[in-house]
Amino acid sequence: MKIVIIGGTGLIGSKLAPLLASRGHEVLQASPSRGVNAVTGEGLQPALVGADIVVDVSNSPSFEDKAVLAFFETGTRNLIAAAKQAGVRHCIALSVVGSDRLEGSGYLRAKLAQERLIENSGLAYTILRATQFFEFIGAIAETGRKDGAVHVSSQLMQPLLSDEVAIALADVTLGEPANGIREVAGPEAAPLADFVGRWLRKQGDASKIVAGAEVPYFGAPLALRTLVPNDGARIMPTRFDDWLGRVAGGA
After folding, report:
1. In whole angstroms, what is the distance from residue 109 CA to residue 118 CA?
2. Ranges for the NAD(P)-binding domain (predicted)?
3. Is residue 25 a contact partner of residue 172, using CB atoms and an 8 Å limit?
4. 3-class DSSP state of 93
């Protein structure tokens, strides 16, 4: 089968492509750097000629509320139109656990808008919602630095390794369309502040951690279980501390 990955040269796309190719499929890693831009439409229709499956793992270059909404709405509308014209039989999108629970986050509002466009497209589809990636815990810590301390939410999260996101996504891609939402997460739910603390200690960073339920997560306060999956999620095996041991001081 021919499989087109939108955002195919990014973190997940670059891991997904070899997994699909190793199973005997023709894979096109589509991205603006390779002349395919879903937002502008450049190169999109030619890329999808003969495609059986399209997987959207693209991400906005800006997380500003209006910009990220425009990115996902415009790109998804263009992709749906091109997929219909090409006769694509399965459309897959990678989304985020909590996209339907965190209206205060402009990014997650945009991801939810993307999901709804796909759900209402008339295409056979699967949406895979993933929890936060291990590789982004450091960035979460940095966004919380203020007055010599790291301020971070005490609510739960259940992160996973990006390689295992790609594995789950490959399985979804080659499976039958769910025409619904699936979820994938790591094996351990713990306070976000706990993951950040373990990350900082691994870096030799003794910064004080100020944890609280009211501390916002990328601008929005969390409920206890906003960032953890529902029952029935696929749970991947790699634990955070095992990953930390392998990266040995840097992701």
Report:
1. 14
2. 7-133
3. no
4. strand
CATH number at residue 110: 3.40.50.720
pTM over 0.85: yes
Coil, strand, or helix at residue 26?
strand
Retrieve residue 106's tokens: 């402009």
d(CA 131, CA 8): 20
Model confidence over 47-86: pLDDT tens digits? 999 999 999 999 999 999 999 999 999 999 999 999 999 9
Give the number of domains in the chain: 1
Confirm if 11 and 62 have CB atoms less than 8 A apart. no
Q: What SS3 class is residue 179?
A: coil
Q: Walk across the sheet containing 53-56 and list its strands.
A: 26-30, 2-6, 53-56, 90-96, 125-130, 181-185, 234-235
* Cα–Cα distance measured from residue 187 to residue 206, given in angstroms and rounded to the nearest whole number: 27
pLDDT digits (tens, 9 = 90+) for 127-183: 999 999 999 999 999 999 999 999 999 999 999 999 999 999 999 999 999 999 999
Distance CA 37, CA 142 (A): 31
- State the residue range of the domain holding 199: 2-247
Q: Give the span between the Cα atoms of 4 and 31, in whole angstroms.
A: 10
Q: How do strand 53-56 and strand 26-30 relate by DSSP bridges?
A: unpaired
* Spatial contact of 159 and 186, defined as CB atoms under 8 Å apart: yes
User: What HEC string does 205-250 produce?
Assistant: CCCEEEEECCCCECCECCCCCCECCCCCCEECCCCHHHHHHHHCCC
What is the number of residues in the chain?
251
Tokens of 32: 């603006």
